[in-house]
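Hi support team,

I'm filing this because I wasn't sure whether my run with zinc ion finished correctly. The job status page said complete, but I'd like someone to confirm that the output block is well-formed before I use it downstream. Pasting the exact inputs I used:
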Amino acid sequence: MALREFKCVDCGESFKSGQWLGCRTIVTRRHTVQSRTFYSQFDNYHIVLRADYPIQEPGGKIMHVPALSAQFRGGTFITNDAEIQEFLDGGTERGELQTAEQYVDGRLTDKQKMQRKDSRIAEQSRLIQDLERKNVELAGGVTESGGGDAERSEGRRGRGRSAG
Ligand SMILES: [Zn+2]
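And here is everything the job wrote out:
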């Protein structure tokens, strides 16, 4: 797979995946790209890309590159950092993160689930009432228990229904 190419909105340079630093020829300065939003099913999803590490400037000076992490709020995270974007794209591809559509669907489904649950409960109590009514009818119709009476009971129930 070819390395992805990004366009820095700060210095205007194009750079490839991995060349995250060096904006405006400053070795520790990160390039900036067009902001993008990422989505998670978890409101406060937090992921650390990597810990901080030291880097040596051409002059020999040791600089400190800060840790990279993504902290979602309300299931969304906006970043203009190419490295984080590429990393989170991988998460979306692996299904660890959501697409915008999945996010919207997921958030809507919570409400819809409640509505569906409510209507299911209503439907179930209707069914239970229905069954109870039928049981009462059956109990009324099949008072004479006994193996040989099955046919007769059927007949009685039939008559009962046509009468009512
Ligand atoms: Zn740049």
